[in-house]
Amino acid sequence: MLSLHNSKETKAILNAVEDLGHTPVWLRQENTAISVEDSELTLEPDIDIVANRLLLSNTEEPAELLGLATTFNRVRPMLNEPDAVMASIHKFATAATLANWNIKVPDALLALSNDRLNQGRSQFGDVGVYKTAIGTHGGGTWKVDLTEPVNPKVGNRQAFLQALIDRDGERHRDLRVYIVDGEIIGAMYRFAPEGDWRTNVALGGDVLNATDEMDDEASETALYAADVMGLDYAGVDLIEGNDGWFVLEVNPTAGFKGLYKATGKSPAPYIAKSAIERAGGTVDEDRVAELAATLDDSEPSCKPRVEPPEHQDVPIIGYIEDVVVSGTSGSTQAKAKSDTGATRTSIDTSLAAEIGAGPIKSMTRVKSGSVKGGKARPVVDLVIGIGGTQHTVTASVEDRSHMDYPLLLGRDILEHYRVDVRRRSDGDNKPPLDSEEYLEE
């Protein structure tokens, strides 16, 4: 299993390999090396086949991981080969590929220039979907008012417009179909949480078993889409419009939690079975079905036990930091204050208007040391770039005109850093004052 992260899906697949009577190997930073000596190639550790679970969509340098996967793919068979994964994580590349094979996808427009993108806004009506080409868990996806201009980029990521497909009078939902080796393992309807229109389970969406309910058109479309994209396992997301089913995305690293909650079935043993059989091994079909009834995402015994040094690879952020903040219609550089006492990042109303932050997703109540009971504030999605790393967060909007900095970085961003309170991009050497103490209820 090639996976440099600690996802529950990776753990579940490795545990399933072991439970099926075979030896799992977790290829991680601690134990992986490839050497060439006298034209002889050596892999450490040695393996028979690789199941690719690299998360390219939320990494700073996807090309590096893509190159790593390609290296393994050249010398060992691989499930979810890197070329197929790369095409799938780029949402517009997915749409273009599927459309070229006569699979229905929502109308969409990607343009490199601001003028061309906004010239095409009118074809999507007054409301449409605005997406970054690469994103995950619903981050980088907005429902926008298309009477206002949009930007061809959000931060350093390309963005595009897509038609909004909705059925009047119905709660917004889509259909995820999980496919392994050309077979449907299960399917679920995903319903948007209250106050949102995105159906991602990671955002709190509800799920309902759809395995036996979905019609032939939906199942055949999902199977065809996974095959066209060249993926051995994938979650295919579809939405039903007035003209039938449309493919929204094909996810090569789809999560297991929602599907298991909806269907009581885990894809992990089926992925393990595929890898074992592709490498020439055999498995007991009844045992696969038995294991699928449990989602065992406990830490696998094969995890390398090397303990990394304290704070390894944890970047440092200053008390005052220069950042790039992006909305749907623009980006700008701003100075931001780091506040470990704040649960959520906060942006000034004027700055939010300048970059086109929005639309408003919901309201949240936050506490301030000076306001008993707290205040209700709107929240919007932002993309904040810090030293080349992009963070998509849901930030509260408030009037910060009386404060020194228009942006406050909360723990939703700071959890990825160590804060050095002595480092200030404004050159002010004064010690920091007490935290603004925003605590989300």
UniProtKB/TrEMBL annotation:
The keyword Plastid does not apply. Gene3D superfamilies: Acid Proteases (2.40.70.10), ATP-grasp fold, B domain (3.30.470.20). One of its GO terms (molecular function) is ligase activity, forming carbon-nitrogen bonds. Keywords: ATP-binding, Ligase, Nucleotide-binding. CDD domains: retropepsin_like (cd00303). Residues 422-433 have a biased composition (Basic and acidic residues). It holds the Pfam family Zn_protease. Residues 422-441 are annotated as: Disordered. InterPro entries: Asp_endopeptidase (IPR008503), ATP-grasp (IPR011761), ATP-grasp_RimK-type (IPR013651), Peptidase_aspartic_dom_sf (IPR021109). The keyword ATP-binding applies. Residues 95-276 form the ATP-grasp domain. PROSITE patterns: ATP_GRASP. GO terms for cellular component: cytoplasm. This is Alpha-l-glutamate ligase, rimk family. It comes from Halogranum salarium B-1. The lineage of its organism: Archaea, Methanobacteriati, Methanobacteriota, Stenosarchaea group, Halobacteria.
